[in-house]
Write a structure and sequence with these properties.
alpha/beta, eight-stranded parallel β-sheet, two-stranded antiparallel ribbon, 16% strand, elongated, Aldolase_TIM, EC 2.5.1.57, AFP_Neu5c_C_sf, transferase, antifreeze protein
Length: 359
């Protein structure tokens, strides 16, 4: 059972380990490396575990016609889609610079490899783990080659069926034990009705030996926090410095105050999940001492009387007496002392109370 593994040096995920929070910078940096650095620092300051980008080798991700098609959207950075994407793409040298900056700041740094050549570059860059974007989740040659490299993998599942995700699991598992799958719906921004957090539980049943997480594109933080309460071990959210900036991802991204709120809420929920063992806790003892109820005498009960239910009631009593859950154990037992009406029935005045009956 894998269930937990090291996603980055010294940072385990799964099991009882803290949820791993990925701040997806993507291409929200506007093609400006200084903005990218500010976003890395912002992710660290807000409490995220990892700053993540998207790396493409454009001629390997798109064919020529896709790169040459006109792109006249208000979000465009060029006349063609290729010009637009080239504006947003950092060079290998710039990636090294960003990686070094992330090390200085003290946050994990990685990227989604958007094509096989990008994965090769990220492997050479020695990123801690590979992120597989939803667009490549059903790209089985890509998955197999990526899995064989032996680095941990985080795999989103937007636009996929459960049948496809079973194939994904089987394909990766043959070559790599250390991976997790994220529930994801590829819409920007994402409406609550299309989130389908219940898929997390289905993934947990289908793939019980790997951690399950959530990649969200909804507005706000509440749904992502709910995912953690349902057992998500990795949370990925797009981040931005300004939602009004050019780019289709900004609207579905979290600004710094929201990312801070998300991380704080996740850590609070993790604390609140606690243990599955139900018992009275030390913090409850003052309330129990003040308001906890006891069995009391409805009538005066002379010494030697055999107790019956019509003699017994339940009240907040002083001193504490037999707890209400044991009231039926008292029936048929005799009292060893007189008990006045409305007095607590304490364990020491009931014959054989709490003793095991010898056969």
């Amino acid at each position: 059972m894998t269930l937990k593994f090291e996603l980055g040096p010294g940072r385990m995920i799964g099991g009882s380990n803290p949820c791993f929070v990925i701040a997806e910078i993507g291409q929200n940096h506007q093609g400006d490396i200084e903005i990218a650095k500010k976003m890395i620092k912002m992710a660290k300051d807000c409490g995220a575990d990892c700053a993540k980008f998207q790396k493409s080798e454009l001629e390997y991700k798109f064919n020529k016609r896709a790169l040459e098609r006109p792109y006249t959207s208000k979000q465009s950075w060029g006349k063609t889609y290729g010009e637009h994407k080239r504006h947003l793409e950092f060079s290998h040298t710039q990636y090294v610079e960003l990686q070094n900056y992330a090390k200085e700041v003290g946050i994990f740094f990685t990227a989604s490899g958007m094509d096989e050549m990008a994965v090769e570059f990220l492997h050479e860059l020695d990123v801690p783990f590979f992120k597989v974007g939803s667009g490549d989740t059903n790209n089985f040659p890509y998955l197999e080659k990526t899995a064989k490299k032996g680095r941990p993998m985080v795999i989103s599942s937007g636009m996929q069926s459960m049948e496809t995700m079973r194939r994904v699991y089987q394909t990766v598992k043959k070559h790599n034990q250390n991976f997790c799958i994220l529930q994801c719906t590829s819409a920007y921004p994402l409406e609550a009705e299309d989130v389908n957090l219940r898929v997390i539980a289905e993934y947990q049943k289908e793939f019980p030996d790997i951690p399950i997480g959530y990649s969200g594109h909804e507005s706000g933080v509440h749904i992502s926090v709910a995912a953690v309460a349902l057992g998500a071990k990795v949370i990925e959210r797009h981040v931005t410095l300004d939602k009004s900036w050019k780019g289709s991802d900004h609207e579905a991204s979290l600004e710094p105050s929201e990312l801070t709120e998300l991380v704080k809420a996740i850590r609070l929920v993790e604390r609140s999940l606690g243990t599955s063992i139900k018992q009275m806790l030390p913090c409850e003892e003052p309330c129990h001492d003040k308001l906890g109820k006891s069995v009391v005498a409805k009538v005066a009960i002379p010494k030697g009387t055999v107790l019956s239910m019509d003699m017994l009631g339940v009240k907040v009593g002083e001193p504490k007496g037999v707890p209400p859950e044991d009231i039926y154990q008292l029936v048929g037992k005799s009292v060893t002392e007189d008990v006045e009406e409305d007095e607590s029935i304490t364990p020491d005045v009931v014959e054989s109370y709490g003793k095991k009956i010898k056969c």
